[in-house]
Here is the input.
Amino acid sequence: MAFPNPYLRYSVVEAALAAEIGDGRWAPGTRLPGENALIGRFRVSRSTVRRAVQNLAARGLVEIHPGKGTFVIR
Amino acid sequence: MAFPNPYLRYSVVEAALAAEIGDGRWAPGTRLPGENALIGRFRVSRSTVRRAVQNLAARGLVEIHPGKGTFVIR
DNA sequence: GTGCATTTGTTCGTATGTATA
DNA sequence: TTATACATACGAACAAATGCA
Here is the structure.
């Protein structure tokens, strides 16, 4: 398929976070909510949150720092 | 069936790992590569890897420890 | 220096849905 | 219909890195 299925949970989470980063809801350098917070907010599992965040990292939107958190790049 | 079909993917993975254990590539007590590593190495799905490894466990070649890994017995 | 809490990393367990032969 | 195989998704446990009191 050419386009990712928008109903895939990790895609939903990823898109929501990417949109908020694009909107400037989080300034560059700020920390994203942690995995537990995202789990609560999106009502998904940790693995789903992790997949979404790792996709954002692969897209260059965030940087993940183990033990510290995930930070917005731009 | 008396003999497993060698073209079944899980049998291929199972046989490869069993051969490597028999060859001593992994000493007893060492940890096998995790499921994700085997997925990448054999280019199969997680369920296929899991089936292969569980067959090895049923044969007494490995011991599976959830949250830790899979370890060679002999 | 020690211990604890927080956060991300890793690994296996399980269930479900889809596609294929 | 059954068996294989893949992907998604949830959960649990263990582990490592970090920061702070």
Summary: Chains B and A do not touch (no CB pair under 8 Å). The two ends of chain B are 27 Å apart (CA to CA). The beta strands of chain B are 62-65, 69-72.
